[in-house]
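[Meeting: bench + compute handoff]

Bench side (C.D.) handed over the final construct sequence. Compute side (W.E.) agreed to return the predicted structure before the next meeting so the bench team could plan truncations. Sequence as handed over:
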Amino acid sequence: MSKDADILRQIKDTLDGLAFTFRHSDDATQQQLEPKIKDLTDQYNALQAKLFADANVITDADLAEMSQIRDEIDHAADTQALILGIARAAFFIGTKL
């Protein structure tokens, strides 16, 4: 698997986990998460389009950083930590665009 495909898979897995968390959250938490998840989804779609047009731009360091961000999101202790992790992921992806 190429590094480009691997990072897209990591991000997609993160989005899938966030969708599960979102569905199992109360209304107030959903209201906080929804715009952040949408932003991350938009960033993912933009990165996917860029990588299809300009392949092989992801490095091993990028994969390691995304893996760390994903771990932070997976282990977020509360909603604020989760929101910060999502924002960090969106920012990271934005640096690759």
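W.E. noted at the follow-up: The chain has one domain: 3-95. C.D. will use this when planning the next construct.
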